[in-house]
Amino acid sequence: SWFEPFRPAHFIFVAGDQLLTDPGTELEKLHTQLNLNVEIDRSYFVKNPSSGLFCFKSNKTACLHEGKGRTRKADGQSSIPIIAKTKLDAFFKPYNEEFFELVGQRFDW
Fold first, then answer.
1. Which residues, 6 or more positions from 35, have their beta carbon under 8 angstroms from its beta carbon?
2. Distance CA 87, CA 66 (A)
3. Distance from C-alpha of 97 to C-alpha of 107, rounded to nearest angstrom
4. 45-47 and 61-62 as β-strands: parallel, antiparallel, unpaired?
5. Nearest Cα to Cα of residue 21 among 37, 39, 42
6. Is the pLDDT of residue 69 over 70?
7. For residues 51-72, average pLDDT
8. Using CA atoms, how far apart are residues 85 and 81, in angstroms rounded to an integer?
9. Across 10-39, average pLDDT
10. Residue 50's pLDDT band (boundaries 50, 70, 90)?
11. What pLDDT was estimated at residue 21?
């Protein structure tokens, strides 16, 4: 229904997983899509070894509190039991495919 009043070109879809694993690149892409000068790039981020999340650095490095972020294993993989993930993937597959076709972009869900 959102494509009734708006064209697909009016939307920008950000890959949340990419934002977690490579925030600088995702923000560079966002700046480019918005036709803005890239003000924040990869050089503004450093990985926090204890949480695995990225911290923003400029004059001072700022990190999320240790309790923040998604619940993931140390290797970055989901902590959802495999049987639950398999069932969720199967249930949402047709909806995801419809969404990917609608927006002309695929996400690694």
1. none
2. 30
3. 10
4. unpaired
5. 42
6. no
7. 76
8. 6
9. 88
10. confident
11. 86
Q: Give CA–CA dist 12/15, Å, rounded.
A: 10
Which residues, listed in sequence order, are joined to residue 61 by a DSSP beta bridge?
A: 57
* Beta strands 54-57 and 45-47, pairing class: antiparallel
For 108, residues 6+ apart whose C-beta sits below 8 A from its C-beta are: 15, 17
* Mean per-residue pLDDT, 46-65: 84
With pLDDT > 90 as the criterion, what percentage of the chain qualifies? 31
DSSP the chain: -TTTTS-GGG-----HHHHHH-HHHHHHHHHHHTT----S-GGGEEE-TTT--EEEESSSEE---TT-S--B-TTS-B-S-HHHHHHHHHHHHHHHHHHHHHHT-----
- Over the chain, what is the mean pLDDT? 85
Place of tokens 């993931």: 72
Cβ(43)–Cβ(55) under 8 Å?
no
